[in-house]
User: Which sequence fits this backbone?
């Protein structure tokens, strides 16, 4: 089930919300109803966006605890489907509950339009010590919460432990061992290894059915996770979100990867791989579920040599994932001067998790409720489930996330069944020791080889801080319009150059064409916001 | 009784409208009154349909003004500043314009032509060749694919046409056709789209022709046989003329959708390799409007699309009226 959902979402969208990779559960179903909890304080109404699998709020024991600690009675309104359709009439009517909770449930553009409906919390921070603590501790959290005009209408979530990147790189270690090869350390070595994979029958079934390299299907609207743009890290370029609309930052200057020489270098390399038959011949036409299922091989016989994914077991399935090992970012050339980098995805800090109505009746009670959500114990339980059924509390700073009580569930599904999980307002503090559930622990483990790519990185100058940039709707629409034209040219060219070649001859005219489509204009707009952002930092 | 009433309204309507037109409004009042007094039952029966059309087809049309306004969330659909034809001009001047138009026309015209001819052929074949029992079976078998959802159809195409494992790709290899990626090649996108479209809807669309053929008087066939006509002559001189009115009406209706290359199927079949030929107006509108939040711009493109369709509909109707004396109005 997790699988299907993931593929469904990924199919055509390049810039899919990253986190869904780990958990990937946005389905449609009906849910709802409201219940008053115990507690004897003032009543607080909360609308909560939750996953359809998630059990009723009143069935979670942390809810009763929260009510007790904050001395409130919570009236829940639970929404698990069609939130976008419900939201607009609700906002237009100006009828909002005391709190709205959900991952980006109220977006920046909602706040820009309907901001007056929501309480500006910037003057209430004294009543929110936990939130204040998060703003102090977590770099960028306050910035993320603050709108262009200096108001704080919504509060983000911070979960440490999440790896900095969604795309992890894998190679089939067993095949390397079988063929007596070493892990490649440059693109050229990778090429040789892939050729050996293709020709040496490393899975030993006597057929040349090995796919040396495979990547996630490309969308027609920019790049996304698990796509070959991941290799760009090897040229020293730091992309974000797998590439997205191509905006990158080079020592404080905004550029677009679509018009970058290093991108051309990547395309030539991939073209070389394609001509040698190293890339799955279906890479450009298969859908996401095929991409996933092919890599799972048959039984314990693997089919793919080199690929990208979120975690080994998710990408390659229970049968063969142990054959794979995570890899570091590969430099394009041996001894190059640029340090390698990798896709930097901002996974820990996520925006707009709770908003408060400007017309809340019991303001103090509502503030107490918000504050309680961001406390250590509540945050842990909101994310992973109740203590003691889902989480074992060892001490005030040590927690163990327990394996699913239902053996049929994987840890991710179990988490989403038990609690609000990533939808909730959460602050997982830096000083906590948490034994993570196996799926997350694995992703963290798989990110370790990539860590050196981030070590020397000056994020302020080389990572496009898309998360923190809030643009005016006019600029957004200019960018969107330019992007549609740019993607219309660049995405097919990418595929065409890889499969049919011609990048060398066509590059110059392509770059000047990109310019007429608005690449430079887009860069300038981004640059303007970046300069403001850096100045305010 | 019902039949008796049924026959009258067109006559009554015609006379009343004629009189209003010829400039005698004083008489229209009582006539209209009499018309309603006599035929109110029919109007009551029609009321839900009229209401539905008014509310769901004409009502939302006030949103068309979005194409001429600068859309502003806070001011609502009707509140934005009037910008006239700005968005239309933007579309005509966009570098994508001619590509979009030619892609859309290529796909929809070829679908229209093949999708129009194939069901006629199938209907005549079924009618002529098969015995009654087999006819029924064949008819059912050919229209069943119509009910498969588009997502599944595209999934099937992807499986069958996969360059390494596809059933059809493998089959074609026997004939020496190799090395073509049917899903990604810019030359094969339109054929794959059209053939699968015809395959899926041919049987369903032939039902209406079969119904027309069923109404042909069997005496004509007998007479033709006695006169020594062969199968082709029977088809040419009996079946075909019987189908012409239906064909013309369907052609007019189809022409009304000439620029409506189906969004879902094309969008699902799109990939980076075939994008140069698979980007059509509807997918572009989706990308601009929904993904890029350019509501005014996408409304303008949509309205342009509808205007072209409407023009085609009117032209075809006029031509049909002249040529074959069959028309919608």
Assistant:
């Amino acid at each position: 089930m997790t699988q299907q959902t993931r593929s469904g979402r990924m199919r055509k969208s390049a810039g899919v919300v990253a986190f869904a990779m780990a958990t990937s559960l946005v389905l449609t179903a009906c849910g709802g109803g409201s219940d008053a909890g115990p507690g004897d304080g003032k009543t607080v109404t909360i609308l909560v966006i939750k996953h359809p699998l998630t059990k009723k709020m009143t069935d979670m024991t942390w809810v009763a605890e929260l009510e007790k600690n904050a001395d409130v009675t919570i009236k829940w309104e639970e929404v698990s489907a069609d939130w976008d359709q419900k939201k607009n009439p609700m906002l237009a009517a100006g009828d909002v509950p005391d709190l709205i909770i959900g991952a980006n449930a109220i977006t920046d553009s909602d706040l820009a339009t309907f901001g007056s409906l929501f309480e500006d919390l910037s003057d209430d921070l004294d009543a929110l010590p936990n939130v204040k603590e998060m703003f102090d501790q977590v770099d960028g959290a306050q910035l993320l919460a603050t709108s262009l005009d200096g108001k704080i209408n919504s509060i983000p979530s911070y979960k440490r432990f999440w790896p900095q990147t969604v795309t992890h790189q894998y190679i089939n270690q067993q095949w390397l061992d079988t063929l007596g090869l070493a892990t490649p350390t440059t693109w050229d070595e990778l090429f040789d290894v892939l050729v050996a994979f293709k020709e040496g029958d490393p899975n030993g079934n006597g057929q040349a059915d090995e796919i040396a390299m495979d990547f996630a299907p490309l969308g027609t609207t920019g790049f996304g996770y698990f796509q070959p743009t991941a290799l760009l890290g090897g040229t020293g370029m730091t992309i974000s979100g797998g590439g997205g609309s191509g905006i990158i930052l080079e020592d404080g200057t905004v550029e677009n990867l679509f018009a970058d020489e290093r991108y051309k270098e990547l395309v030539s390399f991939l073209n070389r791989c394609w001509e040698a038959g190293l890339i799955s011949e279906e890479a450009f036409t298969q859908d996401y579920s095929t991409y996933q299922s092919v890599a799972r091989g048959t039984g314990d016989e693997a089919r793919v040599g080199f690929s990208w994914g979120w975690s080994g077991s998710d990408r390659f399935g229970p049968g063969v994932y142990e054959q794979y090992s995570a890899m570091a970012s590969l430099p394009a050339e041996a001894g190059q001067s640029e340090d390698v980098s990798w896709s930097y995805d901002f996974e820990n800090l996520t925006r707009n998790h709770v908003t408060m109505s400007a017309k809340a009746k019991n303001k103090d009670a509502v503030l107490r409720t918000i504050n309680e959500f961001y406390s250590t114990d509540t945050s842990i339980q909101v994310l992973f489930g109740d203590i003691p059924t889902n989480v074992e509390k060892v001490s005030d700073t040590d927690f163990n996330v327990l394996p699913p009580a239902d053996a049929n569930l994987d840890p991710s599904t179990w988490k989403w069944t038990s609690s609000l999980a990533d939808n909730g307002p959460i602050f997982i503090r830096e000083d906590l020791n948490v034994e993570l559930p196996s799926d997350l622990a694995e992703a963290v483990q798989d990110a370790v080889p990539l860590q050196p790519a981030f070590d020397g990185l000056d994020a302020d100058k080389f990572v496009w801080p898309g998360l923190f940039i809030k643009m005016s709707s006019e600029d957004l629409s200019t960018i969107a319009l330019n992007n549609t034209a740019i993607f219309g040219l660049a995405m097919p060219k990418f595929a065409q150059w890889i499969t049919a070649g011609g990048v060398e001859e066509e590059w110059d005219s392509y770059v000047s064409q990109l310019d007429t489509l608005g690449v430079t204009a887009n860069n300038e707009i981004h640059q303007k916001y970046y300069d403001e952002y850096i100045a305010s930092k | 009784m019902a039949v008796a009433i049924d026959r009258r309204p067109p006559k009554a309507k015609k006379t009343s409208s004629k009189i209003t037109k010829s400039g005698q409004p004083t008489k229209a009042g009582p006539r209209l009154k009499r018309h309603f007094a006599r035929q109110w039952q029919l109007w009551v029966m029609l009321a839900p349909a009229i209401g539905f059309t008014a509310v769901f087809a004409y009502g939302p049309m006030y949103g068309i003004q979005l194409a001429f306004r600068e859309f502003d969330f806070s001011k609502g659909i009707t509140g934005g500043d009037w910008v006239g034809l700005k968005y239309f001009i933007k579309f005509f001047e966009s570098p994508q314009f001619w590509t979009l138009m030619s892609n859309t026309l290529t796909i929809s015209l070829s679908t229209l032509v093949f999708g129009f001819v194939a069901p006629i052929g199938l209907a005549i074949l079924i009618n002529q060749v098969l015995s009654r029992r087999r006819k029924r079976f064949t008819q059912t078998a050919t229209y069943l694919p119509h009910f498969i959802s588009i997502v599944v159809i595209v999934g099937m195409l992807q499986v069958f046409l996969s360059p390494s494992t596809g059933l059809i790709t493998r089959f074609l290899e026997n004939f020496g056709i190799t090395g073509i990626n049917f899903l990604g090649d810019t030359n094969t996108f339109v054929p794959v789209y059209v053939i699968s479209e015809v395959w899926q809807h041919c049987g369903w669309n032939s039902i209406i022709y079969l119904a027309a053929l069923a109404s042909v008087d069997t005496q004509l066939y007998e007479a033709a046989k006695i006169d020594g006509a062969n199968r082709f002559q029977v088809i040419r001189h009996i079946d075909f003329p019987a189908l012409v009115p239906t064909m013309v009406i369907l052609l007019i209706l189809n022409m009304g959708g000439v620029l409506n290359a189906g969004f879902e199927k094309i969008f699902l079949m799109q990939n980076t390799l075939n994008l140069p030929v698979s980007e059509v107006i509807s997918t572009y509108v989706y990308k601009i409007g929904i993904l890029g939040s350019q509501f005014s711009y996408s409304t303008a493109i949509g309205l342009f699309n509808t205007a072209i369709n409407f023009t085609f509909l009117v032209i075809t109707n006029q031509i049909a009226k002249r040529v074959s004396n069959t028309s919608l109005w």
User: Anything to note?
Assistant: Chain A touches chain B at residues 12, 109, 113, 217-221, 281-282, 284-287, 290, 473, 476-477, 480-481, 483-485, 487-488, 491-492, 494-496, 499, 516-517 (CB under 8 Å). Residues 1-39 of chain A have pLDDT under 50 and may be disordered. Chain A has three domains: 1-30+165-345+442-464, 33-162+347-436, 465-536.
